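Run log, item B.
One chain of 110 residues. Sequence copied directly from the ordering sheet:
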Amino acid sequence: ALSLSAESRRRRIICSSMTMAILVNEAINLVLKRLLKFPRPDSFPVVGIKNGDYAMPSSHAQLMGCLLALILLLARSRSVGKHYYPILFILKLTTFVCTVLVCISRVYLG
């Protein structure tokens, strides 16, 4: 039997947790779409979208919010050295800006 190091176990737990969070996020999105039944706007036809598909909540925007939350949670880990703080700040800021831009694009594009 192979023995995993503590770091290897930690990485596996983080990857598994992130995968589960994204899957739960998608399930919540599907349930919300079916409950809210918010139709897509007629003014912006999108190729490949069925008429029965609902617009809100946007799975793109919700996924970006989920990723932002995951990054913020992981970046506050106590095991991160102080020399990584500038990199973590840039990562957090970039993810936040991308999340805001995706949300704005979802409103703009319908």
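Observations after the first pass:
- The radius of gyration is 18 Å.
- The chain is about 65% helix and 0% strand.
Flagged for discussion on Thursday.
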